[in-house]
Design goal:
Layout lengths: L1 H21 L5 H36 L1
């Protein structure tokens, strides 16, 4: 029983190493570029949602 479990763990670890060799990690420039895009998008969306929220608050205040 333990031999079979040990063999399966060894096979799993071999497969993990093989798959990790196939991974392509982004370069520093790609990471910085992607992070910049995400930060700018978050800022723009927060401004948009703030404007929409303010407008809806004003509209509901006028209706009530």
């Amino acid at each position: 029983m333990f031999t079979r479990m040990t063999d399966s763990i060894r096979l799993f670890m071999t497969d993990v190493r093989a798959e990790l060799k196939k991974v392509s990690f982004p370069t520093r420039a790609e990471t910085i570029g992607s992070t910049t895009v995400v930060i700018i998008f978050c800022i723009l969306m927060s401004l948009y949602l703030s404007v929409v929220d303010s407008f809806l608050t004003w509209l509901v205040g006028k209706l009530i």
